[in-house]
Amino acid sequence: MTDKIEKRLAEMGVTIPAAAAPAANYVPFMQSGNLLLTAGQLPLKDGKLAVSGLLGRDVDVAAGKEAAKYCAINILAQVKAALGSLDRIGKLVKITVFVASDASFNEQHLVANGASDFLAEALGDKGKHARSAVGVASLPLNASVEIEAIVEVA
């Protein structure tokens, strides 16, 4: 394993899975110039949805943060599929975190920390990013969280 980022991930106990295939008529990533944009990634673990339901009703913040981490891992899987190596990441520019939320839930930012904290640890300074955390009524397949990313390619 020669990739520095994958070595760091292994030390964190994380293995990057194969990138998930699109579930509809879209591509999982698109590069334009030196920017790579990912399609929204769900909290899949071992090919199955790991966390489902609404935050504030069915899911607590801790489980939501774990879902966000799984989304971030799947973002890295798409980046690796696109670039061949995670070491080609120049920096993570921005993530947008969609949190399926009960109408009274207002801690989307805490859920998003599950992804932000993981990405900062995994990528170091390259992983510091701008972010939006948005509450939504529902997500595909009843997922609790979906995240998309913009990555600068080195």
From TrEMBL:
Transmembrane segments: none
Organism expressing this protein natively: Mesorhizobium denitrificans
InterPro entries in the record: Endoribo_LPSP/chorism_mut-like (IPR013813), RutC-like_sf (IPR035959)
Domain Endoribonuclease L-PSP/chorismate mutase-like: 6-145
Cited PANTHER family: ENDORIBONUCLEASE L-PSP_CHORISMATE MUTASE-LIKE DOMAIN-CONTAINING PROTEIN, ENDORIBONUCLEASE-RELATED
Protein name (record): RidA family protein
